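Blinded run. Sample ID left blank on purpose so nobody reads anything into the name before looking at the predicted structure. Input follows.
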Amino acid sequence: MPVILLSGCLAIALWSLVAHRFERNGIAGPAVLALVGALVVLVDTSAFTEAIDSAVALRAVELILAILLFVDACEVRGGVFGGEGRALARLLFIALPLSLVLVVLFGAWALPDLDVFVLIVVGCIIMPIDFAPAASLRRTERIPARVRRIMGVESGYNDGLLSPVFGMSLAAALALPKLIDAVSSDGGLSGRAEAALERDLEELFTALFGAIPAAATAILLGAAIGGLLGLLIRWATARGWADASGIRFVMLLIPLLAYGVATLDAVGANGFVTAFVAGVVCRVSRTRGAQHDAIPRAELQLVEEAGTLVGHFVWFVLGATAMSVVLAGIDWRVLALALLALTVFRAVPVALAMLGSGLPVRSVALMGFGGPRGTATIVFGLIAFNRLPDPASSIVLEVAVLTVLSSILLHGVAAPLLLRRVPGRRV
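Blinded prediction complete.
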């Protein structure tokens, strides 16, 4: 294991020993671990870049995302859509596509060297909301409870919805430039280049023409795995065959099983969608007929803690990556894209999507400007960085890092301070 990754393990272990003491004073783990990562990477920046740009790192971040998607799905309360189906549909099927369109249009103007598929990949990276860098927004009573509930459900669904779009766009971004080079090349391609082109074209055709079958397979597979194990958990619990300690292991293994089975060569489904659907259906089948609409905390504890652990590692990697990006120099166009994604490119689509919804203007504004970006953006960014060639990979990593860092400042620091300036009132 590279030294930089061992350093991350040590940093997380040391933080875990003192986290309770510091978090009571408002010092959050993500910020601390990101800072440590930024300092550690100064020892050998090139070694860190090589470590994250590898097949092992790619598989690791994919498993991390599968676990996080499963946890998000399990935490949604009140049926499949958390009791906010109409608002969720507006956000996911109107606001989110409009946000992607705005990212692509701005990117085509500001970053003309990137093709449209890379820009769609960028949009999929920077638009999913995640409360990891701004957990206080999810708890504060100065934001109406319904707004917090809607955004909580949205954060669980948007990265699961974007993952197949991300996969298809990434496959197209890899294959099309090589195909264009092959067509325009007079002398033909070398054996290695031809093999790479064939591999990328096969992945592209699979992603495009197999998208609907693969998505259907992922949904069915996730529903089967999550539903069956959810029913078995309920059945074993009712008969006293299993207790919470045993069920915790099952809950941790479900996303690993779902992702692993989906990515078998004979299956070829989207592992992220499978893991997410498994979480949704497992929660519904586990809680059906129960007094509560959520899986008991004792049963989710292990998988949630595993998600927190891998999330800590992601934040360490963010800090190291951020330092690498800063040392390489920041492109103002990429910074502008990150800032617009956090503000205008979300607020305007949300406002349009919520027309006629009956929500107060102030609540819609909070939803538009209160969408933090976190772990999902980092993980999607690392996957794209690992797959794309330069210079696209560097730009993708830079925009992911700048988006999350800006979100930490905007949603994790500035927003709570602004909300506190309204004493005695709920926004």
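Unblinding after everyone has recorded impressions. Residues 348 and 368 are 7 Å apart (CA to CA).
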